[in-house]
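Throughout our pipeline, every protein is held as a single compact record rather than as scattered files. Such a record has a labelled line for the sequence and another for the backbone structure tokens. The remainder of this section carries one protein's record, kept here as part of the documentation:
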Amino acid sequence: MPTETPNDEAEREETEPAPPAIDAKVTDQDLPRFFSNGFARYSDFAPLAAGGSAQLRTCLDKNLGRTVVMKSLHPHLATNEFHKARFLREARVTSQLQHPNTVPVYELGLDQQGLLYFTMKRLEGDTLYAVLKRQAAGEEETITAYNLERLLGVLVQVCYALAYAHAHRVVHRDVKPENIHLGGFGEVVLLDWGVAKVWAQEDDEAEQELMHRQLTDVGQRPGTPLYMAPEQVEGGGGGIDARTDVYALGVVLYEILTLKEPLRGRNIHETFEMITKEEPIPPRLRTPERQIPEELAGIALKAMQKNPDDRFQTMEEVIAAVRGFRSRAISSARSE
């Protein structure tokens, strides 16, 4: 198994853009005369992304002199109690999961129009989805920079974020490469807790229906359905627990190994049928040219078992399996 060398690390750092320098003129200036701790402290808004219920913008926090990301509900949903409740849940769940592999939330409030917003850390870098897409296209620089050893390290950090969430009785429910952020200095952040489930709270039928409708919107990359566990596809919140995230993580590992999704139909509904009824092609048969280690393939397939009782039961078990493989691979490389 290939491993990174110090020279590999140096080459990668040279190709990545340098982060903006901290300006002493900003850090040393006095607070403005008309100081505000509310929405007025933000300026220089710029669009970043938009979804069905909310938008993301970058803005300047004038008090601290830093750029942050602000997420806010779309104006037409300002009085929608369902969307407001979900938005508040996302802000509070994300803020309470204070872990190195989750994004820090800074503030929750109302803007000048009375719309909910929360601010969080601005992240620099890429997503695992973009990295795997470039690898699948044969981009040698990305293949070298993100070799198997490094990607397994990314996977373990995601596992730690999920283990921390599960210890706080929260299930992410939307683990996928698009939601795994990779920074230029080794940072790994699991994003988007918007559909997270708190074990003490049961989903009602309206939420289940809305989730499925949003996931199957025409024109979307069917990213979320590809990583859904059978119990998610079948609906109902009663069967959702930590093992649901274990399944999604197994799909991510499968894609890291093969650069292909394990179960993808011609449309969303066919994909759902495959998830509930078909077994994925073993990674070593799906892409034999990639010489996938049998032990890693087995870890992915065990995590993706249809029956939750047959999967790894905790993220700690997944971490132990991946670290065990890495330890044996290093020992084998040294002996050779």
Notes: The two ends are 12 Å apart (CA to CA). The beta strands are 42-50, 54-61, 66-73, 105-110, 116-121, 126-127, 170-171, 180-182, 188-190, 197-198. Residues 315-335 form the longest helix (21 residues).
